[in-house]
Amino acid sequence: MGQSNKGRQGDGKKASGFGSFGDLKKALKGDDPEASGDVSGDSSSAEAQGGAEQAKIAARGWTLETDDGEEYELDEADLEGLPDPDSAIPARISRRPGAFGPMEHGPKCYADVHSEEMDLVKSFRLRTVFPDDVRSEVEGLPEDPRPKDFEGRRDLRGETIFTIDGADAKDYDDAIAIRPRDGGGYHISVHIADVSHYVRPGTALDDEALSRGTSVYLPDQVIPMLPEKLSNGLCSLVPHRDRLAFSVFMEFDESGERVSSSVAKSVIKSVHRNDYRIVQELLDGVDSEETREIEFLREPLEQFSAWTRVQQRIRDAKGSLRINSSEKKFLFDEKHEVKAIVNAPKYFSQTLIEETALAANQAVGDWFRAKGLPTIYRVHPEKDQEEIERVAAMLAKHGIRVPIKDRLTGRDIGRMIRLARRKRNAEALVQRIMGLVERAVYEVKDHEDVATHFGLARKAYLHFTSPIRRYPDLIVHRWLYDVMTREVEAAEELGTLALVEDLNDTAAHCSIQSEAAGMAEIAVKDLKVCQFMEPRIDQKFDAKVIRVSRGGMEVGLPELNVSGFLPARSIGDRPQIDGATLKISVGKRILSFTEGYTISVLVKDVDFLRLQVMFELAK
């Protein structure tokens, strides 16, 4: 049953992962090593809603930066002038000094690399080790579903169902199938790993999954929400093995509109585990040994390709935000040290899978809305008008005219980005435009208080397709099945105040865990960049000025695909900002540095406390 989700969240610590100033004080004095993660008020504070900025870290200890711009420097001996120890601090500390300090040499072995990563991840109060009771429960699970598990399920093992994932993926939580529809259009089915069959409320396994809230994806490893036996084994939709699934069946007409949908528990057997790159090559007409291996899937893949392009046009017409950007990928040598940082290609085959997931998530969200029942939705709020006008004024100074509307759409932001990318200082402009995109959160909504997702231009959108790595998806699975099998009783339970409050607590906790995981992922990538750049201290590079401020410049090295900071004080004094230009006085001269232009720099230092590469102007 979907029931209550109260349980062990951090072994009795606050589920949000945040503590009081007293927790920070204990951490500084070494009394409570577990209290050294993010520190703020409770889960309903401005920080939890995205109001506070990530804290800065001072060289001698901690620096808290609060919402009002005040800064407090902390160490064990200096705790004066701070808020009352019993009050909450509306700021975030993302890392503690001493968790990792400056290193004379880089890591010497694989174990050292992961140890340092884990110290960093733990500083965000993310759990990295499964407790004994969880491991004990998992040991009792089978390697494959048993025949009795198939009872009451639709048997789809004879259908052409397959997965498409990245080359290094191991947790395959979604599989797809397609066939033409009479009169035009397609029948599409999306099959999601039925995690809820194995992870039951009231178990240590469920408590741990709730506490984690999400999997954490690092450059060289994954910290899973579920133990590996489930995430990579029993729940993973591996090929040629019977697997339990929760399936969404959708019918789309020739215009691409969904005309019907239904859901059912099922048993499937994937016919092939596909790779994004190879699928893309097949669609592009590449003839190779790899593409010939999946030739038998050409027809369904081409049908999915055609359907995806129609869906993209529909989303564009509705004002959805689509951003074409690449993600950095770290390449490692045999010592597990970073040897290169490259931009990973974004394949259309990835978009294909994204569109099937969006369609399934929307179908389930519409199902709950039609039933008039509350559940956990993915909510993406709009930006306030004052901020929109501020960014529009900034863009106007750079020759980008943006008509101010009462309501900004994702399509408007996409247009701003396309125009900005034509400018020499495109990176800085895109960064500022993306400031108009709020962070999505999990919230409980019902049919009257409809959830909206700004980026996708959708209503009643939720997460259903990744229960292996996201706890809200698991909650949606449970309640969906509960309402399907005992509609009256489940609807009554969902209508109770206590249950809705419990769902709200779970949604807030998962939002915080998702944010913490994202910050940890960024921090570990920054750590990897620092390790990569440490041997290059004192080396000279051509750098592009990405963004300027009175404090200095963010500069990027195209040759190495890394960026860092060049302080204005290392050049001269009296820094001034004039549009996209930083002007610094050096004696009687004024040096100007403009966004988008190239300068020569030296790698001055690698700051392992701030996780930042520091540059200076080359002589």
TrEMBL record:
Keywords: Exonuclease, Hydrolase, Nuclease
Domain S1 motif intervals: 538-618
GO molecular function (one): RNA binding
Region (Disordered): 1-88
Low complexity composition bias: residue spans: 36-47
Top-level enzyme category: hydrolase
Pfam families named in the record: RNB, S1
Amino acid composition bias (Acidic residues), ranges on this chain: 65-83
The enzyme's E.C. designation: 3.1.13.1
Start-end of Basic and acidic residues biased regions: 23-32
Domain of life of the organism encoding this protein: Bacteria
GO cellular component terms, semicolon-separated: cytosol
Hydrolase listed as a keyword: yes
Entry-linked PROSITE patterns: RIBONUCLEASE_II (PS01175), S1 (PS50126)
BP term (GO), one: mRNA catabolic process
Signal peptide (from-to): none
UniProt name for this protein: Ribonuclease R
UniProt gene name: rnr
